[in-house]
Batch of 3 targets.
Target 1
Amino acid sequence: MTKPKVLISDKMDPNAAKIFEERGCDVDVITGKTPEELKAMIGQYDGLAIRSSTKVTPEILAAAPNLKVIGRAGIGVDNVDIPAASAQGVVVMNTPFGNSITTAEHAIALMFAVARQIPEANARTQNGEWPKNDFMGVELTGKTLGLIGAGNIGSIVASRALGLRMKVVAYDPFLTPERAIEMGVEKADLGTLLEKADFITLHTPLTDETRNILSRERLEQCKKGVRIVNCARGGLIDEAGLKDLLDSGHIAGAALDVFAKEPAKEHPLFGTPNFICTPHLGASTTEAQVNVALQVAEQMADYLVNGGVTNALNMPSLSAEEAPKLRPYMALAEKLGSLVSQLAHGNLTEISIERSGAAAELNGKPIEGAVLAGFMRRYSDTVNMVNAPYLAKERGLQVRSVRYEGEGVFNTLLRVTVATSAGPRSVAGTLFADKAARLVEIFGIGVEADLEGHMLYVVNEDAPGFIGRVGSLMGEHGINIGTFHLGRRETGGEAIVLLSVDAPIPAEVITAAEKLQGVKLVKALNF
Ligand SMILES: NC(=O)C1=CN([C@@H]2O[C@H](COP(=O)(O)OP(=O)(O)OC[C@H]3O[C@@H](n4cnc5c(N)ncnc54)[C@H](O)[C@@H]3O)[C@@H](O)[C@H]2O)C=CC1
Ligand SMILES: O=C(O)CCC(=O)C(=O)O
């Protein structure tokens, strides 16, 4: 098997490259490339490991037909076009915890720095000025911190701030009252937070909802003398408004680690009194960089080598322990999805995936993804578990997942049903010895067959001599039959024949089969 090939395109702890190699991947570390240079080289890679410098745009993705996974050694993934990656079937992963303590500490450090104007005092002292009378700071003790975003980083900042004897007021629409009590913070709406806070720190992702969350109007609503720290993302604060309100003295100080446009080599805020900044250093500690580099390499290699999925933003997680158990189910699920889409006709508006027996105990999301991948293959060659749910949604296909806990005839069963204009159509399969995928039912008719390679599916009237006629037809056309399976609704009723053959079935054989006595439907199937 050829080794998966990974490109590390941003500066990353060297442990990442080591892990990729140890886990069986080939790895190139090529940093600092322009988008054009990256576009020219990305086509050969299965994995792309990045921090924040590489921007993964639709153009880069279009030049990456082999790409299977993008790993962000960090938290924010606003430098990756996730919808475009998903549409192309590329998994996007991040490392949601590896740098949170470090980033929270940077926010606290900037809060102190802005409270005591440390950078300016340092610069002027080293300049030989000894400007002791020019600096008068404020204490943090007893002050109110307004926290915008109370997730991982926000809650660490809150705990550190409480340790500094600050009061913490938090605004986060997803913060439950119970969690607020557990964190020791007061849950508030944004308006209340702005009225109360002496310091504000931001800890939300940059989304359509959070963009400009501290707009000029909201900055004006802040308590006079507020100090603001942003270690999350540029774009959360109106930078022009911030400059004007710092100049007017309404805002007493601001510290930014992040800017709307990075790298920020020139900026109207530079040189503003009581404004300090760092060049997106929130995650830059030895500890955090080792954490995120190791984690991203482990996660990406696990996906590329074993199919394990951790911390993906566009796909359900699948642990390394679950992956081997789920793999045969996913193969069965994909085949059932493919079978039902090859057999069902008309306007397919709904697909339902039932798991019963042992299958009901498993993580249903990957199985659902595999059914959809099999089902959507009829519409796209490049479909996989990642993009299948998106393609299904795009086509207006409703997806239902159902699990039955009780024991049935089979100790494990997957059933896939599609709603068609002629009513529901379902196929079902099981696993033999926990491994081998077997079809056990087509459209209510019991049958037992492998779903492999090229197959002929015939619906006919159950009558003597039919098997011989099908066998002779195949022989006359030089087609070797591998396996032959039969099923019927009742004696003399509707019956099916499923046979596997060694090569694709030519169109003239299908036409000839349709003319056989008693035949209602003939289809060539491919798996
Ligand atoms: N400066 C740096 O180097 C770093 C910056 N970051 C940034 O910090 C952000 C936060 O990271 P985590 O705390 O780990 O993320 P998280 O996902 O744990 O927390 C984000 C919180 O924001 C809240 N939120 C979402 N929309 C909101 C809204 N409209 N108003 C208020 N709250 C809202 C969410 O409910 C969630 O609790 C990341 O998205 C990333 O952009 C992260 C690491 C390093
Ligand atoms: O990789 C970095 O230095 C930036 C980290 C960051 O912004 C993040 O993890 O969201």
Target 2
Amino acid sequence: MTKRNDDWLIEQKYVDNVKLAIERKLDTITENAGDLKESIIELRRNFWDDVTINLDDIHEVGETFTSIKQQVELLSERERAHKQSYKQLQSLRRLAYSPFFGRIDFRENGEEQAEKIYIGLASLMDESEDQFLIYDWRAPISSLYYNYSPGPAEYEVPNATIAGEIELKRQYIIKNGRLKSMFDTGVTIGDEMLQEVLSNNANTQMKTIVATIQKEQNQIIRNEKSKYLIVQGVAGSGKTSAALQRVAYLLYRYRGQLQADNMMLFSPNFLFNSYVATVLPELGEENMQQTTFQSYVEQRLGREFTIEDPFDQMEYIYSDHEASGKTARMAAIRYKATDEFKKVIDAYLALLSHQGIIFKAITFRGAAIFSANEISEHFYSLDNANSISNRLHLTAEWLLRELAIFQKKEWKNDWVKAEIELMDKEEYLRVFREIESIKSEDDVTFNDFDMEEKLLAKQIVKQRLKPVKIAIKKLFFADVKRMYRRLFTDDGTRMLSRAADLPDEWADICSLTVEELDKNELKHEDATPYLYFSDQLRGKKSNTTIRHLFIDEAQDYSPFQFAFFKQLFPNSRMTILGDGNQAIFAHTMNSPTLLSPEVFAGVEHTRITLKRSYRSTRPIVEFTKRLIAGGEEIEPFNRDGEKPTLTETNDKKQFLEKMLLRISLLQESGHQTIAVICKTAKESRIAFRELGEQFNVQLMDKAAQTFSKGILVLPAYLAKGIEFDAVIIYNAADERYGQAAERKLFYTACTRAMHELHLFSAGPRTRFLDEVDESTYHLL
Ligand SMILES: Nc1ncnc2c1ncn2[C@@H]1O[C@H](COP(=O)(O)OP(=O)(O)OP(=O)(O)O)[C@@H](O)[C@H]1O
């Protein structure tokens, strides 16, 4: 028997031993969990039998309360324990399927013998609980596996560094408890294993990468020092993957201090959210909070405005026609994303601190209780060393005090009497009951009718003034909307003329913005500035429970949004991941984004660059890297495949026939996700109609939450962050992708392909292919 076969048998034996240990643990936990479940059911069923209820006197009530409290605590402790054992069971079942994926033999300096360290999804101890059979991939010692090849190596534990020598490094693929393959690796994480993983079919959900995390990705995952961790990584370099494994790592590393709820991921759309949603549960962790910037904006401003979403903005930008006003709109989109515009708003706020806040009169029954002037006078009489928001709150307090005086005067008014007379029976009873409760609270007894009517009047006035009170508390008397609008009028421009530098296109930006605001529409580019302005005026909103913020596709965010995020999440560290070459939003074209170095000038941060692309085959990367400036830096992972193809034809009938034939071929060769990527939603609808006649096709729009295997038609901006076995570019013609601004969109679409990429062009091909060496694709 060869050494290799010997090793194989020894390893399978180790797998069997581990499986046995897992089974024993599973038995014990299942038994205990069963007992716990029974006792929970029992406790719930007999809850009221086991508490002593006596409400006779205050002392007995106290005892009854304590007795219920104890019973609740007992129940919730059992429920917690049950949840814990359920989690353990799940973790053990995962381990039983594939107990470990790596091993290193590490000899610590000064020791004679190397220790075998098996690494898997979770730790497992032997029966006596004193030896690790498997180490969790996130344990300090496991970092050796990701960071070093055989030879000298070291790892950190709290307050110490442990150095030694890796004598062996081995990787395994184990399925259903059977060893399927095994590689001894020289390099950090062997190519064979990655080859095997990456050649699989794409899935409708993202997969974990713990078995094959690369050294540079490991730096991202285990970084604990930086307040801002910025990752610029080429398409398919594993940014999203690294971010998700990082969440799992942090939850493990700070167990007990950090929960999944303390982390939040901002992602580009709902489709992406559900695409990544299974990774953390697969790693045995709960998902962090996931949101999109748009849903945050909707939640804050959805009641005040009709808000444009980024996808509609994108449809507008990439629409065919030179719609009138498009130049002004593009200028507005770019300018409103900048730090300069934030400075303009800051300058405006500084002026408002001294004069010019627009107040709304507070009215009641059609007449002003407090005029705008009165409020303004009070506001500006307050010490302006206080911030605007402080003074607004002080003004609200003053208004509430004044309102109380006003309220008293109203009691005797005729309208109150009239209302009492007109009251229907139900309302009368309701108000009457309220009075009764006040009377009993105050321990007052009234018998005479006058007094009763007085109380009734008091109650009516109180009720009718309630909305006024709420409006004051919410600071509605400061008219944020009109103040924001004024910024874009001659008045605002005059106010700002000395305080800020305004761009050349300012006049056009102004008229466009005023027009939209007057329709009560808030364009996507106005959402961040408006929220920022409103928060500065009315008091900053902040979410202090979030301790780690993850921003994926960071190239979509502006410097202004970064300033806003810092204010919104003051206690949070940030992991910011993106790719400048996939910046497809108008405000990010040729402008700084959240990834740009200048945004972090003077701020302490760590920047990591990923250049290796894992998603696509080498021939696909060799093709796509030539589509963008600086693409020569991109390193493909060495995985074979067919070269991309380009089918160019003027004949519309032929164009469609060839595309249909290609889809049939892709299906025959076993590809499970085939994406037909279009430029816009409009183009997607056309493609869907055409292809739908022959195939079962799914059309994805911006509301799509999930997708299933098969043929999908979708616009490029929705395909962001996702990947497919095969990609068809629906129309790579120059008239579709010809503007400089469309280059990155085209690149983003092409880089979604894992195994096959096919471009179709109705008419002359895009000029972006002029720079691509013809040897990198087949012309059909
Ligand atoms: N270390 C790894 N081991 C196995 N697979 C990996 C690894 N790194 C990345 N991948 C795979 O490469 C593909 C791309 O990863 P991911 O989506 O995380 O990249 P990305 O940088 O976020 O891409 P993009 O910016 O193009 O959206 C995924 O299929 C992922 O599973």
Target 3
Amino acid sequence: MANVLGLTGGIASGKSTVSQIFKKYHFKIVDADIGARKILDPGTKGLEEVVRIFGKQILLDSGSLDRVKLGQIIFNDAKKRKQLDECLVHHIREWIVSEKNKLLARNEPLIILDIPLLIEAHYENEVDEIMVVAVSEETQLKRLMKRNELTVEEAKMRIESQLPLSEKIEMADIVIYNEGTIEETEAQVVKWLVSKGYYSE
Ligand SMILES: CC(C)(COP(=O)(O)OP(=O)(O)OC[C@H]1O[C@@H](n2cnc3c(N)ncnc32)[C@H](O)[C@@H]1O)[C@@H](O)C(=O)NCCC(=O)NCCS
Ligand SMILES: Nc1ncnc2c1ncn2[C@@H]1O[C@H](COP(=O)(O)OP(=O)(O)OP(=O)(O)O)[C@@H](O)[C@H]1O
């Protein structure tokens, strides 16, 4: 029976970085951020619902979602974020579970579900183990500001829109510390893969 690993962490703590490491070792990933994009493609019910809540000004001239604008709105307004979450949660879950089932049917030994809001949105029953990618608050803030070109205040708002990383760590079966170099992070992932018998060096 396949082992389903839930991969989570705080915003910009390094989930995608760890996910890339798993990919390098040929393990299969279900990426919730990709699902969240697909369910908001032009012509989807998801996008229709988002337009109903936020109006046509949330679309670019091309008819696609203006992701930057939606991000600015929801990370500055908890009520709007809740509205968005409520309208998308079922679509995202459906996509994730369907992708997971496809991989289960292929008898993959290890399936990784990369879900930023795994704890907040209660995916615990969809996974066998939870891996949390952790960094210090300073590093998280610094990397988020750099990657998304945000001010300190903007970055803090995004971090505060999620459950504190410290609380996610408490829920973890495995913690990967992504404070150092990517090579150091990779070594921790490989050590875990070896300990579970999914990989031998
Ligand atoms: C607001 C949107 C358009 C911003 O898009 P953008 O391309 O700038 O960011 P991206 O999608 O890469 O998300 C970056 C990170 O933001 C965090 N995040 C995204 N949505 C949320 C949310 N509703 N609440 C808290 N954190 C969130 C996650 O850590 C995610 O990994 C987009 O994040 C979105 O559609 N969010 C709602 C869907 C959702 O809940 N996604 C999380 C998947 S579980
Ligand atoms: N060990 C590291 N050393 C230096 N930079 C890093 C390291 N790990 C990740 N980064 C950088 O930090 C940023 C956040 O990493 P990443 O995108 O992997 O986080 P994430 O948890 O997937 O983010 P999100 O929650 O927004 O999806 C990226 O710009 C990435 O290149």
